[in-house]
């Protein structure tokens, strides 16, 4: 795939090198020939882009082929449910939707607490398809939204690469990003999440902004404002844009690259983008009120100061006078800004930074202060092997690309370098942010590949030309010596260049193989259907989740309230169509802590809590039979931690033995009697899970459980799925008073 | 009769006097003990924490009849376990010292200052005391109240009290002693004079800096500085420095079985050690920079032989580095990552 980018560039080279010779021949044939090569080049470029477009789409279809067309993981189920609502009820109903089926008894105002970009996009595609008389199910649209937008991202990457370097770099960038595992991980078919469209929007905004800075055109700046609006409507990661762009502008100002183009681009983008972003209810007035957005405003004011100074400098001829004026203005501007910020913060008008933002700047913050952020697996810091896994050769190409960028500094390359470095830092803080860094890494690596290949091919080409001219015309007097040395070194250099070219293409092909393999092996599992290898190497599928949710849908009263840990909330409402107490939108920590407290209390206390929440059913996920390791027992310590964060009666050390989490005979008595333990291991002591092991052997943790004789008093088993992965219990009504 | 009454009086007086006398004698020895503790406290090198040995324990605790006139709060330390970063012993010890110094400064001169003493016992010199308190796991902080007779029953600080460090330790102390420790006075990062000097320097250099920035001749305008910075950011990101900081991973650990061996690389894709990350990050950076060097600098070298040799050398180095990274990655993640060369070349 990497190889495909080459012919286009060599063709373009050919145009420039062959044309002078042709001028001598007839003008007519030259014109037709030139058009032809140009057309050829265009044709090649378009066909490469078309192939890359298709490639980006089909590389993401492994999951559909392996399993079926279904929505993956947790959050996408909520997005699917809301999209369904949007297509059925229309936009206004959706915008004003109060959802009483989640966060019982509080409910949730859906319209005001989500980023609607994804749902609206999918609904628009759905309506467009229907208008064209393609009657597809909305689920298919949702499943394929992510691959579709990944394809679009490759196009943006092409134009971006073209803008910052040249066409060759653009094509290489498109190819690299089409199959980069760091991006594929969040955009396979079925992962219907905000990031699916957000990365497209992010890159588009950046591209349009850089284009606006390069051209100084209002039209591009306007377009980038709309790109920003789309990003704000799609994902909370827009905060990255609103901080990176001002930072970039600030660096340009400091390094003395202030220009009118920059002034137009930034002002238009900031003002319009801000006004547009305020239309999203979830974001609201944050652009003028929250501390995270204040940097952008500060840079905006600084730009005005720069413009004003420029004007004064133009008016004043005396440089000394201007120097004094400058000093006074800059000092007073900074002072006024500082005082305004201080007053705003002190009066509470400007809110301080949120925990998530703070945890990016000070990585240890979340661990100490916000367990609910620290508990999510995708918020863990990144170890080096993850970078290797997601970037492969791009990691080696990145420093080279940086070097090339610095060799040819321009406004555009400064931007891509800053984007690359900041996002790479964030990727080190949180695993999920590798996604944000991927486009930058691809672009910078593409520059490295393109520049290297270009150097090598031009080496080949000039040698040929020199040898030709040398043989036909003979050596000129002034250039003779240089040509002679070039001729002498030619065979070796040529062979060397060819060898290096082959090496580069070989590496790129290895990258392609790695990416395909990673996509098919690691990133295409829907995590709602679990796959395992049997003893004979055959595939075994565990479809227990959907089995349980359909059971809920068919066998429980429609107003039943289900209590589970928050991970499964979205899935229960979307697939089981029942009310849940907490779900993946972790907006109310106290409510989650209440559930955590119920799960970690003994049955009597838990019963009181469940009665107060009107709970009818309790659902737990248990991997002891199948060896499924991300089950509720392994998440249990987080329930204790989050519960203990609000209710001090829950103390983490009481569930540990010498700092160790155990479920076997040596487990702490509190652990053995808590609700979660009882519900997971109820009747498990009678079951033999593995040959040669005693009954009650937990395969996920590899121990024999400590309490095999579990009696339930206030709950009764209602349903256990075929592989015991999901277990549902009914909460009994209180016994008659005597 | 008279004699008898006198005698009975005397007996009664004696009866009343005896405990009084003994109390007097006691109080004398009590004040001796307190004085000794105070002098120990003032002579202790850091923050007034008294280092107790086995004989001190018997002198101040076991051989003194209850109720003692003072209570002790004891931090159990072990130098051997300082290297275990999960226990955070040294950090806890610092916080403990902070509570102690705060208590002393807030209660200095008042009566309460001699009612509570902060002590520490170190395992290598005082194993007997560890047995006496029945200490099995660290961190362990015990509070010995004036009435505690059996030292194994002394109040122990539990995990929740460690969590918030000095502040929650203070709560624990105040809850049990009914004495006030007061708000924790953490030493500021910079002393006042240092801050003053820094501010003065900034003020003095400000005009010069502003002038330089306006003229465009600062380090900020040197692209080599920016390039170095960029490569450093790259290096620290891909080597997982953030992981090391957040998880507080040590650079290396000692082998469990053989103390003299060091473990630099850890198996399992969700873990890494400091040295490991830096090594791999260094390998990444070297290969990338070599590529840039070969394509941009080497072509300018005049001497052909030099050019060839450098080229070959950098190829060999790159090949070796990539090979190392792939090998390490395969070993660490147990995934067979697709290498950069045909699979038959695999070691």
TrEMBL record, chain A:
Its main location: membrane. The chain crosses the membrane at residues 42-62, 109-129, 141-161, 167-184, 196-222, 228-251, 263-282, 294-312, 324-350, 387-405, 412-428. Residues 562-619 form the STT3/PglB/AglB core domain. Keywords: Glycosyltransferase, Magnesium, Manganese, Membrane, Metal-binding, Transferase, Transmembrane, Transmembrane helix. InterPro entries: Oligo_trans_STT3, STT3-PglB_core, STT3_N. Its cofactor is Mn(2+); Mg(2+). It catalyses: a di-trans,poly-cis-dolichyl diphosphooligosaccharide + L-asparaginyl-[protein] = N(4)-(oligosaccharide-(1->4)-N-acetyl-beta-D-glucosaminyl-(1->4)-N-acetyl-beta-D-glucosaminyl)-L-asparaginyl-[protein] + a di-trans,poly-cis-dolichyl diphosphate + H(+). It holds the Pfam family STT3. Residues 48-444 form the Oligosaccharyl transferase STT3 N-terminal domain. Its EC number is 2.4.99.18. It is found in: Endomembrane system. The keyword Amino-acid biosynthesis does not apply. Pathway: Protein modification; protein glycosylation. It is a multi-pass membrane protein. Belongs to the STT3 family. This is dolichyl-diphosphooligosaccharide--protein glycotransferase. It comes from Camelina sativa. The gene is LOC104757757.
From TrEMBL, chain B:
It comes from the Eukaryota. It is found in: Endoplasmic reticulum membrane. It is a multi-pass membrane protein. Residues 1-23 form the signal peptide. The keyword Glycoprotein does not apply. Keywords: Endoplasmic reticulum, Membrane, Signal, Transmembrane, Transmembrane helix. InterPro entries: OligosaccharylTrfase_OST3/OST6. The chain crosses the membrane at residues 195-214, 226-246, 278-299. Belongs to the OST3/OST6 family. Subunit of the oligosaccharyl transferase (OST) complex that catalyzes the initial transfer of a defined glycan (Glc(3)Man(9)GlcNAc(2) in eukaryotes) from the lipid carrier dolichol-pyrophosphate to an asparagine residue within an Asn-X-Ser/Thr consensus motif in nascent polypeptide chains, the first step in protein N-glycosylation. N-glycosylation occurs cotranslationally and the complex associates with the Sec61 complex at the channel-forming translocon complex that mediates protein translocation across the endoplasmic reticulum (ER). All subunits are required for a maximal enzyme activity. This is Probable dolichyl-diphosphooligosaccharide--protein glycosyltransferase subunit 3A. The gene is LOC104755407.
